[in-house]
Amino acid sequence: MVRYIILFFVLLFISCGTKTKILDNKITDVPIDNEIFKNKKFFEKKLLSNIDTNFVYEENYSYQSNKYDFKNILNKKNYRVDYRKSYYKFYSNGCVNYFTFGGFDEVTLSSINPNFDGQRGVVYSKGNEMKLDLFTITGYSFKRDYGIITNILKVKGDTIFEKKIKDLTYVNVYVKRKIPKEFLIYKPDW
């Protein structure tokens, strides 16, 4: 009897959380129910007036800022040393895909396919700020725990500045990068 009670609680604990499916790359989990992107209702087309959906935005460097603005308080840029490359791809319907490649991998037609790779998200406006909700790993218990992390975005020219709500003193900087027109065939469905 004790075994059944323990088994019941273990199964209950494991079954809790966001239901996911694995993308074609056999690594990335995405939500099955797109209702998790509840802030998509705050998306307005005018948000993309300064973001070019025909390009990707490549992480270039990061820096320290204070909590209240995007100023570089140390006048120092930190570049990645792990040889990884991260990109955002924005779509005209407010969907966003976040890709990370290791080593010297480049953006290819299949790697930018949102059904093959990438963490899904949405961009929206709330409280006079541009925000991005990204579905990602938020922790580990018996398995990966998934949820939404929220970032604040600021766009200046061809550059996107990103602050994570969990650490407002750190800014990631993404620069617009051209991709071939053939890469623009994908339509996100979340």
Question: What brief labels describe this structure?
Answer:
190 residues, mainly beta, 8-stranded antiparallel beta barrel, two-stranded antiparallel ribbon, disordered N terminus
Count of separate DSSP helical elements: 1
> What value does the average pLDDT take?
87
Beta-strand percentage?
35-45%
Question: Spans of 5+ residues with little confidence (pLDDT < 50)?
Answer: 2-15
> What is the end-to-end distance?
44 Å
Largest sheet entry: 8 strands, antiparallel, barrel
Percent helix, as a range, is: under 10%
Dominant shape: globular
Determine the oligomeric state from the structure: single chain
Number of strands: 10
Strand order of the largest sheet: 3-4-5-6-7-8-9-10
Give me the Rg, rounded.
18 Å
Detailed description of the structure:
This protein is mainly beta and 190 residues long. It is built from 1 helix and 10 strands; from the N terminus they run H-E-E-E-E-E-E-E-E-E-E. The chain has one helix at 2-15; strands at residues 20-22, 29-31, 55-64, 85-90, 95-101, 119-126, 129-140, 144-156, 159-164, 167-178. A hairpin with a 2-residue loop joins strand 8 and strand 9 (159-164). The longest helix has 14 residues, at 2-15.
Concise overview:
The protein has 190 residues and is mainly β. It contains one helix and ten strands; from the N terminus they run αββββββββββ.
